[in-house]
Write a structure and sequence with these properties.
- Helices cover 25% and strands 40% of the residues.
- It has 373 residues and is of the alpha+beta class.
- The protein is elongated and about 170 Å long.
- Among the domains are: 95 residues, conserved putative lor/sdh protein from methanococcus maripaludis s2 fold (Beta Barrel); 88 residues, Efflux pump adaptor protein, beta barrel domain (Elongation Factor Tu (Ef-tu), domain 3, Beta Barrel), CATH 2.40.30; 62 residues, Helix hairpin bin (Helix Hairpins, Orthogonal Bundle).
- It contains three helices and 21 strands.
- Helix 2 packs antiparallel against helix 3.
- The chain has a six-stranded antiparallel beta barrel.
Length: 373
């Protein structure tokens, strides 16, 4: 019995001892492997920083408006007896567009004009007789009152007839006609849209903190989706004198030449207000910026030498202060120096002090044509 217990104890010691020994052997081999393993180098793309001029912009959005635009309506009701324009026609100020029926008014005008010579002669006769003492001043005044009343009546009929002829208030292009021959129009009926698009306007808002950066006559670049290949030049023409106290923004208006009539009212537009150019500034691609909770950083590549004399490239993470971003480039206010080499892609696996290898890649280049979905 004692021999069996002793044998079991010896067997247990051997089993546990072999397990412990194997684990110690395994740990030692792993340690040796890690000690002799080469330090990994991660492939990245890089860019050398150089100083150049930077032209900042203020960005804004708004809608294109015509220089003048109005929906023409009739002041008085009546039947359409003549239409003197077609849809899309170029009109001049004062052109007659619609004639409404005015037969009754014209007849009344003709009757009043027929009485005018007789009333005028009667007034002149009364004046002549008054000078001879044959009539009183009251009779002269009554004859003059009759003449003035008849002249006023004639002018009233003429104005009524004129109001029944709808004319273009300014030069412009007519839209789509909304009335037809013989139609009875109630007063205030929309007849046609007339717009002067020889010069367009853009209204937009900016924060009040940027008010000191803009001025009358300042140049702008305007972009519209409907004319993606064209950049339109504009000029600030008016600045609202008051700031909206509820939103803290101020309205601005810009004039845009439109001789080719490529811009139409209602188009959504994006605008860049050109600010003074700043010399010797640093910009980097947006892909080089790492956005974190504690700030924005950039990996800077530097050449290092190991203890064995080998040279390698190492990255160091630097905190940067960012300015404005335009067309994929970010203005760096502080944190980088002229001549630094930065990582532009491949930062996902990097950490401070990691070794890297700079490779060539065109993955970040913009395609000449965006593929259709």
């Amino acid at each position: 019995m004692k021999k069996w217990i002793a044998s079991a104890i010896v067997l247990a010691v051997l089993v546990f001892g072999s397990v412990i020994g194997f684990n110690m052997f395994k740990a030692q081999k792993i340690k040796e492997y890690l000690a002799n393993r080469p330090i990994p180098e991660f492939p990245v793309t890089g860019k050398d920083i150089s100083l150049h001029d930077w032209t900042p912009h203020l960005r804004a959005i708004g809608f294109i408006e015509p220089n003048q635009g109005v929906t023409i309506t009739n002041e008085v009701s009546g039947k359409v007896v003549k239409i003197n324009f077609v849809s899309g026609q170029q009109l001049k100020s004062g052109d007659a567009l619609i004639y409404l029926d005015s037969e009754v008014e014209e007849a009344n005008l003709k009757a009043s004009q027929g009485r005018l010579p007789s009333v005028e002669r009667n007034y002149k006769r009364m004046v002549s007789l008054f000078k001879k003492g044959s009539v009183s001043q009251g009779q002269v005044d009554s004859a003059e009152a009759d003449l003035l009343a008849l002249q006023g009546q004639i002018e009233s009929y003429q104005a009524t007839i004129s109001r029944r002829i709808i004319r273009a208030p300014f030069d412009g292009i007519a839209g789509l006609r909304n009335v037809f021959m013989g139609e009875y129009l109630k007063d205030g009926t929309d007849i046609v849209r007339l717009e002067d698009i020889s010069r367009m306007q853009l209204r937009f808002t900016i924060p009040q903190n940027d008010l000191n950066k803009i001025y009358i006559g300042q140049k702008m670049k305007i972009f519209v989706d409907a004319q993606a290949d064209n950049t339109f030049e504009g000029t600030i023409s008016a600045i609202e004198p008051a700031v909206n106290y509820q939103s803290g923004v101020i309205q601005v208006q810009a004039d845009i030449p439109n001789q080719d009539h490529k811009l139409r009212s209602g188009m959504f537009a994006k605008a860049n207000i050109v600010l003074p150019t700043i010399e010797k500034q640093i910009t980097v691609p947006e892909t080089a910026i790492n956005y974190t909770l504690y700030g924005e950083t950039v990996y800077v590549i530097s050449d290092q030498t190991s203890e064995s004399g080998d040279t390698f490239k190492q990255v160091d993470q630097k905190i940067v202060k960012l300015g404005e971003s335009i067309d994929g480039e970010v203005h760096i206010l502080s944190g980088l120096n002229d001549g630094d080499t930065i990582v532009t892609s491949g930062q996902v696996r990097l950490s401070n002090g990691a070794r890297v290898t700079i490779v060539e890649s065109d993955i970040l280049n913009k395609p000449a044509e965006i593929p259709a979905l």
